[in-house]
Amino acid sequence: MSDRLTLARAIEDAGIERTKAERVASVIFDAIHDSVATKADVAAVGADLRRTEVTLKADIAAVRADLVLVEHRLLTRLGGLAVVLAGALFAALRYWPPHG
């Protein structure tokens, strides 16, 4: 209430009569009442962000671990494929008829 009264006095000091100044102050406070964040609101959002950050860091770590596993599997399979292809090439060259 004291903020509303302070605003009404400031409006009155600007040259508007007391009753109109009080009405304007009331309308302004009613309009912004539900739109203003309190310190508690800001603190709650901050705590929420910190929890979200911790969760995201854990999720990112899990994804990185999965990527390492996928990389290992991919390299193993590509290595195996290279060995099989090299063996097939050497076998084909071994039994290829000589040109001579």
Strand % is under 5%
For the biggest sheet, the summary is: none
What is the β-strand count?
Answer: 0
Unreliable sequence segments: none
Helix content: over 70%
Distance between the termini: 108 Å
Fold topology:
Elements: H1 2-13, H2 18-32, H3 39-95
Give structural notes.
With 100 residues, the protein is an all-alpha fold. The chain has helices spanning 2-13, 18-32, 39-95. Helix 1 crosses helix 2. The radius of gyration is 37 Å and the shape is rod-shaped. The mean pLDDT is 89.
Keywords summarizing the entry:
84% helix, 100 residues, mainly alpha, single chain
Summarize the model shown:
The protein has three helices and no strands. It has 100 residues and is mostly helical.
